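User: What would this chain look like folded?
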Amino acid sequence: MQLVPRLLASPDKFRSTLDGPAAAAAIAAAGRAAGWEVEEVPVSDGGEGFLDCFAGRGRLRTTSVQDALGRPVRAQWMLLDGGRTAVVETARAIGLAQVGGPEGNDPLAASSTGAGQLLAAAVAEGARRLLVGLGGSATTDGGAGALVALGGGARLVGVDVAVACDVTTRFVDAARTFAPQKGASPAQVALLERRLQRMAQELEAIGGIDVRDLPGSGAAGGLAGGLAAVGASLVPGFEVVAEALDLAERVAAADLVVTGEGLLDEQSFSGKAVGGVAGLAAAAGVPVVAVVGEADPDVEVPPGVEVVSLVARAGSRRARDEAAACLTEAVAFVLAERAGGAAD
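Assistant: Here's the prediction, encoded as structure tokens.
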């Protein structure tokens, strides 16, 4: 009896075109049409799309909180493990997209209060472990607003908090690195930098930790550092997701892994989701294909990783406007090629 081959569809989001679950579904459509058994496990490096990785795996909750500019917003989060673990993506509350992008943001006034309110809501519902995804925030307040909402961190006592960081930027550097993307002028960047310096001193007095030298503490405008000062662990985002989803075991059980993202660049194989999936596949001896929106031709691709670019196959306009169809077609082509090679 011939065994049905197993395909693991494990992409990150394709920014501005497909979220992780939609990308996984597009990959899966090609696999099932070709007769493969398919498992859909979208992934994230801790940035935007973090909550999407857990779709269908727990109880989705909605809480009314403040967005970065203090306006009411209804933000989703999730309870797993019978309510013991909560998954919170802070961008659902204080994301730059929530305030209309950099043009609609007030970089100096933007506050992380809503993120703290989400975490407090999860703890109030009984969660004793928090998986917190950062990325895409409108704020550069060093977590000041979040800590106020958390009673100075008192509401996190006895709670295991794992902060999934998708960057290694340090606390004060968050101003220069990220604030311009959030609408800050050069003068505002300088002001925010001085504010983070003062905030670092306050955090050291609170938690005894100098967050200025802590890798990743600048994530979400320093929110990561603020949470670290009250006991949170800063962990590479992909590692948080991979552990929570038992991804290594799922990769090892597959005959082929298909991952992907919108743009393959020099960061993709340095702590990002696509590189993380490829690393797990290499360790398990499972072939991996990265189907991406577009690939930087100068990127050094690890041995054993096949890269397929939708823009190269279908052109930039169709790759953007019909991303799901292009992704399905590209995976179908890959599987047909492999079937032909196996037949030869």
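The chain has a mean pLDDT of 94. If you want, I can go into more detail on any region.
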